[in-house]
Structures are given as C-alpha cells and as structure tokens.
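Appendix B. One record, verbatim.
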Amino acid sequence: YRDRNGLPGNRERQRYRAGVLEGFHSKLREQEEQISSEETLVWKGDSKLQTYCRYINPRIRTRYGSGVTDSAAYRDGLEEGRRVQIHRPVESKAGFGGYLRGA
C-alpha cells in the first residue's frame, strides 16, 4: 500500500493495516449476527474458570489506546478488510504424495 500510493513513512501503512483488521472484524461481526439464534449455543461464562485464569496469569492487564486517526489510508483499509475472504483449505485423503517418494 505504501509503495503503491507513494507514502514516505510507515504511519499511513500502519493505519491501512489497522483499517484492514477493523474491516474484516466488522464483516465477521455482521456474519455472526446473521446466524439464527436457533443454530447457536450460548455460553453464559464460568466464574471459577475466570478466577483460575487470573490465578495462573496474574500479570495480564487490560490496556487501552487512543485508537487510529481516520485517514484515507484507514478508510482504504476498511474497504479492503470487508472484501477479505478466507476459504477452507483443500483436503485430500489420497493422491499425489510428493516428488521424494522412493528417492
């Protein structure tokens, strides 16, 4: 993105990446909302599990940041993120095993 648009530094490239991630995240959120409630399981949480995780990992802290400044690079990233598609891998039970067989 930086090379294609002739940007001098990394700041706009990082904003673009943040936009891609946010766009893809919003796309996943929309897909999740479209799934009917009849097909989903709802997990209510487990307070003992949460207590145990905090006991095992006592140094985990929540951090907050100022976010990303809205820019053309960020908006371009949002558009790209909404177009990202991840396909399932091709699975094969049998077939070609490679060139080194019997070598």
